[in-house]
Specification:
The complex is a heterodimer of chains A (396) and B (367). Chain A has helices spanning 2-24, 90-96, 117-122, 125-133, 150-154, 164-174, 186-194, 236-246, 309-337, 344-351, 353-359, 363-368; strands at residues 37-47, 54-61, 80-87, 104-106, 112-116, 142-146, 201-209, 214-224, 230-234, 253-257, 264-281, 284-300, 371-380. By secondary structure, chain A is an alpha/beta fold. In chain A, strand 7 (201-209) and strand 8 form a beta hairpin. Chain B has 367 residues and is mostly helical. Helix content of chain B is 71%, strand content 1%. Chain B has helices at 10-22, 25-28, 38-62, 68-110, 116-133, 135-160, 177-192, 211-237, 247-253, 265-294, 304-316, 322-354, 363-366; strands at residues 256-257, 261-262. In chain B, strand 1 and strand 2 (261-262) form a beta hairpin. In chain B, helix 4 packs across helix 11 and helix 4 runs antiparallel to helix 12. Classes of the chains: A alpha/beta (396), B mainly alpha (367). Chain A binds chain B through residues 27, 29-30, 108, 135, 138-140, 187, 190-191, 194-195, 349-351, 353-354, 356, and chain B through 109-115, 118, 167, 170-174, 237-240, 242-243, 250, 253-254, 256, 262-263.
């Protein structure tokens, strides 16, 4: 018995020693210490005065300057630092940052990747590869094009969230409340590029000078051709036109003017469904876009009697027209740019794989003169918590 | 004289084969090169796998209580039978080395300064201990790990639900027919054709009459789960899956629920590691068992470490660059593996039928 117990104890002791050894077995070649890494949250790429070189700027979090309520007031430095470097390839430039940054750059927490418009117009094809190939970048990074230099965007002082990369990331997630800006992450961009016919798009951001301060504004949409050269931008309404077709409108306000010119209706978008139907009519490819939408009456300055059904039918038809209008201006712009941002080519590819092989080589030309039917069915539903108008027409 | 005294139940065989089929397959998704038609490649590949299974099952049914080597010797005579068996053993050793290398390559992507041999030795040592402790240990292990894998699969899928896009399954059949056939063949070869290794241990199942039906069951369930993985990957990634090295990992990397549920790929890496371990160990075990049987040893245990050392060396010298592995798994393996997965077993079966060896009434004579 004693012998057995001894053996048992010996086993436990051996196990403990083994477990203790795990503490030292954490690896020694690829060890990664948090305090030896510079955490990058935003990246910017700009064209450089030197031909065939690019200017890379990385926004690095500076933990010593992050203000908490307890430490507020101490030091007025920014919570980030922008490290910049000029190089021929992206990877080289990022590694060369170790000449100017005491810590090696660490990208898994990167949120946004901004390309300056100058560089975007020259083409960003060569700079995307690393972002997709390297393990440290996540497929969920947002791709953005900036008016002016990307470096300036990253270096803008932002309120509420004082690291601009996080601020911009939040702008992207909150854009769903207006649905007037496009957003795309690395994965979706790669999908658009691999589809060959679809023109890639990206968010667009610019600095706005209000007089008192400079602030960031994320709206509009940057449009690329299939070689990743930027060819143009869509304005806010065209952007929403694009999102209607893609079925990505989540919410937003449609303002329609009353036909008698007396005031506006502001309609809040609630639910959207869209469908792209490719067809051949007399051997000619055509597209039908079907959009179904329902909305609420959010605000009105009209003096119609809202208790009458006619008033609501009028709103429905006005809304149909407004959505139709947004889609068709987006379509006109896209056809003018010869950029199939809607993925109509992909729709043909999916439905008519064999015929598509013949269409693919000259798809750009086909697209620029493609016949598109837009069918919008929309409904204004809920009037809000008051049914009747507040003001009557007595004042007139 | 039995080399292995442990017996596994038919249920344990089911789990073992199930885990084996998922193996490293969940990581690469062999049908992925068929793009939007990956699911079709997976389906047809699974059906082809059932043809292999029918051959293995009828071989096992004709020779109850015998493993591959004994069947070979019985059918082809002592010399040819042994020669064939040695061929099988080299093949098993080679596959085991490849599975090991696949692990190492996966970790080497991120950890570039760690010598490759570290990634090879670590799983190999664990594997050696598993092999030393016998088949039942592996069977029990795969039972536990499968539960975790299935749970994680459904968890990931729920978190990915909002990123799925059904239209990614279109266009239907737009890829050239030879590419489609290649995808089907690689699905059939990669997880299903490899199950030929179970002929080595099929005589260790305590209830031989049930093995056939339990193998079928694990093929069915394994096929279904692989199919679900494929469907999910295509639905989430679309055409991106065709350019990705590890499509399944890329899928899970997409998960982002409120900036909290992110970076879940580590879970899939664990799945990959623990399932691949089963696969590699079974090949290792079969090679060790077979070699000691061919050398008429009393126990297989003295061979575990020598063969492990051999395995390590094969694994190290398999290829210099990753691209050779890709070319191998995508273009060559689906075909040369057929020698062992299809032709040799089929040949044995035909020869056994012609020579009328192993028919039911002759059981008493053969035993």
């Amino acid at each position: 018995m004693i012998h057995v117990q001894f053996k048992h104890r010996y086993k436990i002791a051996a196990l403990l020693v083994l477990i203790l050894q795990l503490l030292f077995a954490t690896g020694c070649w690829d060890l990664l210490e948090l305090n030896k890494r510079a955490i990058v949250v935003g990246l910017g790429f700009d064209s450089s005065p030197n031909e065939d070189k690019i200017l890379i700027s990385a926004q690095i979090v500076d933990p010593s300057n992050i203000k908490t309520p307890q430490t507020a007031g101490g030091g007025d430095g920014q919570p980030y630092w922008i490290a910049t470097n000029e190089s021929t390839t992206v990877f080289e430039g990022m590694r060369a940052m170790t000449h100017v940054s005491s810590r090696k750059l660490f990208f898994p927490h990167n949120q946004i990747i901004i390309f300056g418009e100058d560089l975007a117009k020259k083409g960003i094809k060569d700079y995307l590869d690393l972002l997709m190939r390297d393990y440290e970048f996540r497929e969920t990074n947002w791709i953005i094009v900036s008016e002016g230099k990307a470096q300036d965007i990253l270096d803008t002082k932002t309120r509420v969230n004082n690291i601009s990369a996080f601020f911009i990331r939040d702008l992207i997630t909150e854009r769903k409340f207006s649905s007037q800006a496009m957003a795309i992450n690395i994965k979706d961009l790669a999908r658009k590029i691999t589809s060959k016919s679809t023109a890639p798009i990206a968010s667009y951001i610019y600095l706005e000078n209000t007089g008192q301060e400079k602030r960031l504004n994320l709206s509009r949409t940057a449009v690329f051709d299939n070689n990743m050269n930027m060819v143009g931008t869509l304005n806010n309404y065209e952007s929403r036109g694009l999102l209607w077709v893609l079925g990505e409108v989540k919410s937003g306000i449609i303002v329609v003017e009353s036909p008698n010119g007396k005031g506006n209706y502001s309609l809040e978008i609630l639910k959207v469904k869209s469908k792209i139907i490719p067809e051949f009519k007399d051997g000619k490819p055509t597209i039908t876009v079907r959009v179904k939408e329902s909305s609420n009456l959010g605000e009105t300055s009209c003096l119609e009697d809202l208790t009458k059904p006619e008033a609501w039918e009028l709103m429905d038809s006005l809304q149909n027209e407004a959505i139709h209008q947004e889609i068709s201006i987006a379509l006109d712009k896209a056809q003018e740019l010869k950029a199939d941002i809607f993925g109509f080519g992909e729709a043909f590819h999916k439905k008519y794989p064999r015929l598509w092989n013949e269409m693919e080589p000259n798809w750009q030309e086909i697209f620029s003169s493609l016949e598109v039917n837009i069918i919008v069915e929309s409904k204004v539903g809920n009037p809000g918590v008051i049914i009747k108008k507040v003001f009557s027409e007595k004042g007139d | 004289m039995k080399l292995e005294n442990q017996r596994i139940s038919s249920n344990q065989l089911f789990y073992l084969v199930f885990a084996f089929l998922l193996g490293s397959t969940v990581m690469f998704l062999p049908g992925a090169m068929a793009g939007s038609n990956a699911w079709l490649a997976m389906l047809l590949g699974t059906l082809e796998g059932f043809i292999f299974l029918a051959i293995y099952n009828s071989l096992a049914d004709r020779h109850p209580g015998k493993n591959l080597i004994e069947i070979n010797i019985l059918v082809f005579g002592s010399f040819l039978g042994k020669a064939l068996s040695w061929l099988y053993m080299t093949y098993f050793l080679y596959i085991s080395a490849q599975v090991l290398r696949t692990f190492a390559a996966f970790f080497a992507i991120k950890m570039t300064s760690t010598p490759l041999i570290v990634f090879l030795i670590t799983p190999l040592l664990v594997s050696a201990f598993a092999v030393r402790s016998g088949l039942e240990v592996l069977a029990r292990y795969s039972q536990i790990i499968l539960m975790t894998v299935i749970f994680l699969f459904f968890l990931d899928s729920i978190l990915l639900a909002k990123d799925m896009d059904i239209s990614n399954f279109l266009p239907f059949m737009d890829i050239p027919i030879n590419k489609m056939l290649l995808s089907i063949q690689s699905v059939a070869a990669l997880p299903f054709g490899l199950t030929v290794v179970f002929l080595m241990i099929i005589n260790l199942v305590s209830n031989p009459s049930e093995t056939g039906s339990f193998m079928k069951k694990s093929f069915l369930f394994g096929g279904i789960l692989l199919m679900l993985y494929t469907l999910r990957t295509t639905a989430v990634l679309g055409s991106y899956a065709t350019i990705s090295t590890y499509p399944a990992i890329a899928t899970v990397r997409i998960i982002n629920i409120g900036e909290i549920f992110t970076r879940l790929e580590i879970l899939l890496s664990v799945v990959f590691l623990s399932l691949g371990f089963v696969k590699g160990s079974i090949f290792y075990y079969s090679a060790v068992l077979g070699v000691s049987q061919l050398l008429k040893m009393r126990s297989y245990r003295p061979l575990v470490f020598p063969i492990g050392a051999l395995l390590l060396n094969i694994s190290l010298s398999l290829y210099d660059e990753y691209i050779y592995d890709t070319i191998d798994t995508n273009m060559l393996f689906p075909f040369y593996s057929m020698i062992f997965a299809l032709f040799l077993p089929l040949l044995t079966l035909i020869a056994a039928k012609i020579k009328k060896i192993g028919c039911k009434q002759e059981d008493g004579v053969d035993a």
